Amino acid sequence: MKKEKEKEKKKKREKQSVNSRASEEPAAEPPFSESSLPEHTDDLSGGMNDLRQALEELGGKWRLQVLWSLRSGGELRYGTIKSAIPGITDMMLSQSLRDLCQSGLVERQQYQEIPPRVEYRIRPEGITLIPVIQWLIDWQKNRMTTEL
After folding, report:
1. Tens digits of per-residue pLDDT, 51-74?
2. What is the mean pLDDT of the chain?
3. Distance CA 142, CA 131 (A)
4. Which percentage of the chain shows pLDDT scores above 90?
5. Domain boundaries along the sequence of the chain
6. Using alpha carbons only, what angle is made at residue 86 by residues 95 and 111, rounded to the nearest 5 degrees?
7. Environment class of residue 126 by beta-carbon count within 10 Å: exposed (0-12), middle (13-18) or buried (19+)?
């Protein structure tokens, strides 16, 4: 009973903070315009292979969060990335970093020191995804304000 009331209070506070941010920030513009959308065709699979490939590269709930944590462009160590992503396990962070390195969106630099030091940096191809991730964040914020 007590936990439920605490959850309700937390939700109210989150909604209030979202509302105050929404009034301060202008509505997000999508990274595309209607004129840039492909013409509708009767071929329902149009672009589906590209979408499938993109989802394979970015799939899972952690990879976009890892990219977002690296958005500054600077080199970050594993522990810094982990502390920026609440709830991620060591196994999931390691796997996500490995997958992002394999896809060429993140680079890994290992220094031959004792103790060993490893740093990660977003690559230019990964930086091109940051506006898309920002758009998703803004989209979610706008959804939250319209649900109230």
Report:
1. 888 888 888 789 999 999 999 989
2. 80
3. 16
4. 49
5. 58-148
6. 50
7. buried
What are the E-state strand segments in the chain?
Answer: 76-77, 106-111, 117-122
Of 52, 80, 73, the C-alpha closest to 124 is: 73
Least confident piece of the model among 19-28, 79-88, 107-116: 19-28
User: What distance in Å separates the CA atoms of residue 76 and residue 64, rounded to the nearest whole number?
Assistant: 16
Cα separation, 135 vs 95, whole angstroms: 25
pLDDT tens for 105-122 read: 999 999 999 988 999 999
Please give the model's pTM, rounded to 2 decimal places.
Answer: 0.67
First to last CA, the chain: 24
Long-range contacts of 125-132 (CB under 8 A, 24+ apart): 126/67, 126/70, 126/100, 127/71, 127/73, 129/58, 129/64, 129/67, 129/105, 130/67, 130/68, 130/71, 131/31, 132/31
Supply the CATH classification number for the domain 58-148: 1.10.10.10
